[in-house]
Amino acid sequence: MDDFQKILLNVLDKKLQRLIEDVDEKNRGKIRALWQNITPAPDCMHSSILCERLQEIIGPTYAARAGLVADVICADLSEVPHSVIAEIRKHLMKLVEHLLADPYHPLISSTPSVYERKGAPSGKFLQLSFEHTLALIRVAAINATHRGLRDIDAVFEEAALKAQLREMRSSAVEAISVNIVGSTIGVVQTGANAVSIISKSNCPSIHDGEWSKYE
User: Fold this and answer.
1) For a FRET experiment, which of 43, 169, 189, 195 has its CA 20 to 30 Å from that of 179?
2) pLDDT tens digits, 89-128
3) Full-prediction pTM beyond 0.85?
4) Up-side HSE of residue 100: CA atoms within 13 Å toward CB?
5) Nearest-CA neighbor of 114 among 18, 1, 56, 35?
6) For residues 28 and 26, what is the distance between their CA atoms, to the nearest angstrom?
């Protein structure tokens, strides 16, 4: 990998990390805000309702994160040569796979301790129900990540194909330009040769007084 490819890979990595972290921080904030409904009061949010809200927050997020990565890669590779795309593809896919790993599972897993720490009334937290929801969220994250990685790999395929087409068109245009220039030079040269031949022939000249022969 040459210096340009390394720089491009580094730029993309940092850009994607920043964008994904912004999304994740917003969702972590929503989860913490949801925990504010856990109190010692009788109207403390029941864990079943809290789990539904968690799924509403987290459910669409995994696909959205992958979609964001795909959009950035598609846009940033739109003018990159095919050889560069082929070189950085494997490295960038590894970075993306790490980037799309589930960031919410550890945070959500601490929900039971939040109920305990805040002194929620007895019966407001159902362990089995929570574990079931946590498992569903975990499976959804894995499935969404796999789909996202396939979609991102398809984006690479499309970017590589478009780069090849650009380069093929560029080569064709260059070849046509060379042919046109070559043909033009040939025509000019042919004309010049014809003029030279005529000038060297025995055609009469108005300066040598020989027009009288044809009068």
Assistant:
1) 195
2) 999 999 999 999 988 999 999 999 999 999 999 899 999 9
3) no
4) 29
5) 35
6) 6
**The total number of residues written for the chain in this structure:** 215
Separation between Cα atoms, residue 73 and residue 70, nearest integer Å: 5
- For 105, half-sphere exposure in the C-beta direction (CA atoms, 13 angstrom radius) is 14
* Amino acid symbol at 64: A
Residues 6+ apart with CB under 8 A from 101: 145
- Residue 101, classified by CB atoms within 10 Å of its CB into exposed (0-12), middle (13-18) or buried (19+), is exposed
List the structure tokens of 117: 């720490």
Token pair, residue 119, equals 């002194």
Amino acid 131 reads E
CA gap 19, 25 in Å, rounded: 10
Task: State the burial class of residue 144 (Cβ atoms within 10 Å of its Cβ: 0-12, 13-18, 19+).
Answer: buried
Q: Which residue has the tokens 């739109």?
A: 78
Both tokens of 158, joined, read 């499309």
Q: How buried is 122 (Cβ within 10 angstroms: 0-12 exposed, 13-18 middle, 19+ buried)?
A: exposed
